[in-house]
C-alpha cells in the first residue's frame, strides 16, 4: 500500500460585501482554473487558529481577527494527477490590514506565481471552488 496521509488544514472565509477572498489556482492535468479560500496546513503542536494566523502573515502580510469556527469539511481530491485527502477546519475572519480590502489582485508573498482576488459568492458557486463542501459556509 502506498504511504499516504491525511493533511489537516485551517482555512478562512474573508468577506467583503458580496465577495470573498479566494486564491486562484490551475491544475494543468485537468486544464482547469479553480478557486480556494486562503489558509494552509496545520503543523504538529499548532492549533487551527495558530495556523491561520501564521499562514495569513506568510501569504498576505496581515494578521486576522474576529476569528470564528464555522465547521469542518473532508476533501478527497486529485490535483496535478495526484490524489489527496484533507480534513479542513473552516473559520470566518477579518483581515487587520485594511488596504487588502481595496486591492483587486493580491500577490501571495511566499509564492510569486500565486495570487488572490475578491470573487462574488454567487459567481463562485458556478466555478470550481474548493475544498469540496465549502459552499455551505459562504
Kindly identify the CATH topology. Nucleoside Triphosphate Pyrophosphohydrolase
Largest sheet: 9 strands, mixed
DSSP helix fraction: 10-25%
Question: Architecture, according to CATH?
Answer: Alpha-Beta Complex
> What's the domain count?
1
Q: Oligomer, anyone?
A: single chain
Order of SSEs:
EEEEHEEEEHE
How many strands in all?
Answer: 9
The N- to C-terminal Cα distance equals 37 Å
Question: Number of DSSP helices?
Answer: 2
Overall average residue pLDDT: 94
Strand content: over 45%
The outline comes out as: globular
**CATH domain class name:** Alpha Beta
Query: Which structural class best describes the helix and strand composition?
Result: mainly beta
State Rg: 14 Å
In terms of per-residue confidence, which ranges show pLDDT below 50 for 5 or more consecutive residues?
none
**What would CATH call the homologous superfamily?**
Nucleoside Triphosphate Pyrophosphohydrolase
Walkthrough of the structure:
This protein has 138 residues and is mainly β. It has two helices and nine strands, in the order ββββαββββαβ. The longest helix is centred in the middle third of the chain and has 13 residues, at 48-60. It is globular. The chain has one domain: Nucleoside Triphosphate Pyrophosphohydrolase, CATH 3.90.79. A hairpin with a 7-residue loop joins strand 7 (105-107) and strand 8 (115-120). Strands 1, 2, 3, 4, 5, 6, 7, 8 and 9 form a nine-stranded mixed sheet that branches.
